Fold this sequence. Notes:
Elements: H1 3-28, H2 33-53, H3 56-73, H4 80-103, H5 112-123, H6 153-162, H7 172-176, H8 196-207, H9 210-224, H10 232-258, H11 265-286, E1 287-289, H12 291-294, H13 297-308, E2 312-317, E3 322-324, H14 325-346, H15 350-355, E4 362-371, E5 374-381, H16 388-397, H17 403-408, H18 411-415, H19 439-448, E6 452-458, E7 462-470, E8 475-483, E9 486-491, E10 495-501, E11 513-516, E12 519-524, E13 527-533, H20 534-538, E14 553-560, E15 563-569, E16 571-579, E17 593-598, E18 604-608, H21 610-621, H22 628-636, E19 640-647, E20 653-657, E21 663-668, E22 673-675, E23 678-683, E24 686-692, E25 704-712, E26 715-721, E27 723-731, E28 735-736, E29 743-749, E30 752-757, H23 759-766, E31 776-778, E32 783-787, H24 791-803, E33 807-811, H25 814-823, E34 829-833, H26 841-851, H27 853-857, E35 860-864, H28 869-877, E36 882-885, H29 889-910
Parallel strand pairs: 2-4, 9-18, 13-15, 20-30, 24-26, 32-34, 34-35, 35-36
Antiparallel strand pairs: 1-3, 4-5, 5-7, 6-7, 8-9, 8-16, 10-14, 11-12, 12-13, 14-15, 17-18, 19-20, 19-27, 21-25, 22-23, 23-24, 25-26, 28-29, 29-30, 31-32
Amino acid sequence: MDDLLREFLVESAEHLDTVDAELVRFEQDPNNQQILRNIFRLVHTIKGTCGFLGLPRLEALAHAAETLMGRFRDGYPVSGASVTLILATLDRLKAILADLEATGSEPAGADADLIGALEQMASEEAPAAAAPPPPPELPPIVERELKPGEVSLEDLERAFMEAPGPDDFPAAPAIEAPAPVLEAPAPTFESAPEPAAPVQAAERPAAAPSAPAAEGGESAVAAKVQTIRVNVDTIEHLMTMVSELVLTRNQLLEIARRHEDSGYKVPLQRLSHVTAELQEGVMKTRMQPIGNAWQKLPRVVRDLSAELGKGIDLVMSGAETELDRQVLDVIKDPLTHMVRNSADHGIEATNERLKAGKPARGTIRLSAYHEGGTITIEIADDGKGLDLAAIRKKAVERNLAPAADVERMTDAQVAKFIFHAGFSTAKAVTSVSGRGVGMDVVKTNIETIGGVVDIATELGRGTTFTIKIPLTLAIVSALIVKAGEQRYAVPQIAVLELVRVDPKGENKSTNSIERIHGAPVLRLRERLLPIVTLEGLMRGQATVEEGELVESGFVVVAQVGRQRFGVLVDEVFHTEEIVVKPMSSKLRHIPLFAGNTILGDGAVVLIVDPNGVAKLVGQSAQSGAATETEVEETEAGDAKATLLVFKGGAGGFKAVPLSLVTRLEEIDASKIEHLGGRPLIQYRGRLMPLVPADPGIVIRSEGNQALVVFSDGDRAMGLVVDEIVDIVEERLDIEISADRSDLIGSAVLRGRATDIINIAHFLPLAYDDWARGPRKTVVKAPSLLLVDDSAFFRDMLTPVLKAAGYGVTTAASADEAMGLLKGSAGIDLVVSDLDMPGRSGFDLVAAMRKSGGRLAEMPVIALTGTVAADAIEQARRLAISDLVAKFDRSGLLAALAEIGEAAEPAARAAA
């Protein structure tokens, strides 16, 4: 094959891929002449080159497609059938080019079917435009005699026509100036009648500049961007040489650290800098935008939409995000498969979406962005979500796990069953999917390049697949550690933090290894972390034997997806950029290691594979009780809260949700001022009121005074306390205090009886009108929706409502609230602020009543700062159950209780 033909094959493949994607865009936007010109130019280029190279079969196909697209330029309407026909022609062209590349000659064959269909469609007449309706018959004009001083309409028209206009002034050169630029399309214009010529000359320059401007813009861009084709093998060899240079640089740096002679340290530093720049430059030659892997997806989604009879939109963002070509090649097929799965399994049929209150057309969102040293790719759909109950049942039927274990698993763990080979919950096998083949390959391919895939799903709302992959596979940053007598490299992409552990009992302030059911765990910030050792994993033990000493050293806290674990090592040295070398073929079956590398001192060390370690930890956890991934996820739904504990009044302990606190301050008491009998302090350029957290607290006049600062927008309040004690995370079990409005209730925190303060009691003491700010909708027994656009007020009311026995869901806007109400059948009641920016609480209730069904009858309690007569009347029209002042905690709970009492007879009747 000569160079000219090889160049033609490469360019034609690129042109066809571009036309593929542009045609799908053109179908959605048929009036975009820029897209049509681009498509036409590319197809014309392919046809012309085929004629030059003597490829008649390719030329005939391209010519027929070009003819039909020429009709589009002439105004022929674009239809789905015509676009499908051209796409089928492109597929045939790709198949012929593939055979041409394989054999070196154009394959024999006839394409009369496609050419005939293209010519027939091109010869069809465009549908005639609808005849304009006949002009309406006007009644006869009623004339009256002219009054003195009036003129007739005919006289006015004659005077207007006789008056000098802009054409009578010497401005003709402005019209004639563009004339030389125009090309006469046909001799017809030359023989046109004389009066018509000025009209044509005036009309055409007005429309013509858009096309030359666009073409000029394209040529300008093309002139700036200069490219050259380089063989991939050349780039790979250059990358290998740079990798060896990095290794040599590391060895020289290691030598420099051991010697005091500084004579060669300056040139060595320069060498290190140049090597880093060279490495970065070579890496850029391997980087490609991820959009190259997405190029075929619009066509895939279009074809699936037609095949499945669903309306599906594909939204892509972050296509310019770059990653290594080698990584890009690996993820192309997994991305395609996951998008196909979302279209087939995720997006519902149109009638099902309409019944669920969703838009008729489903949406698949594909996004990519940099996060740390990785690329994060998200494939999200707004479909029906994974049926976790069906997945649990299928997992038990296929003996993937015992039924008891499956029931104990979290939703995230159950969702990952879909990555098992042959796993499918589809009731029927289609040409798209349903055979249970593919998702296991997706996971394998992603893990092969050191990536992880995670699933987040919500029934009725959709599913999101999150893929995290490294930027490159060639050179990575790693943490060098020592376990036993061996050193290992741990990729920094998976390392969260390092924790020093010492033998238990030596120092109460240090971390220590504990054992639960014989398995070592580390209690890190009130969460249990399973611990493994590299030495144990080398012996095939995912857990640590009882007699094995694991009491001291360093714990490398790592995270893979949602799974977090600790690796106990003896020493931690430093971080280093390492060149990844593949494992020997005899050792590739060991899942614990991803490869090996050469350190600066010449030592060969193994690179730990975090995915392999996570898999071993997960397998051992299914029978043991020491995996905190499950514990964390199971406890995530419980009423756990982070609380700030302080002393206030007679040495008693009090607490407030930390999410409400803006800052903790310790101020000079001498700076406290009193105005109008109220204590204030100048805080960040403003006066901030001070309110004691307990009547027994005396504000100090000297020394330091502890404050807990709360703020919302530009307002702030300082809560005066005696002493800040601690921050704790506990599951709240509190009782509503009936006799004191400043307390929500009492709870046991860290073995101490603690009062949970009601911050809503203190805010009006600082500002009488502090009643602004949106809130979330709250749903009553068992679940209520709290709607408010102020996170401060949402956080303030949520613990009060939970303590009263309600399950609370929150929303920050009326639109978000409507989405939650339509997507969840478990919400029984709405508590909404009326004064929200954008759509108000009244707008939310009106939308609920118009939607019909259960939302039309759902009880609503409205929160407002002031109760006006017009607000009461509007609330009555919208059937709002009650209007409650924002700071009236007891009033809100009483209103909720009344609604609950009213609902009880109906519930008993239904039972």
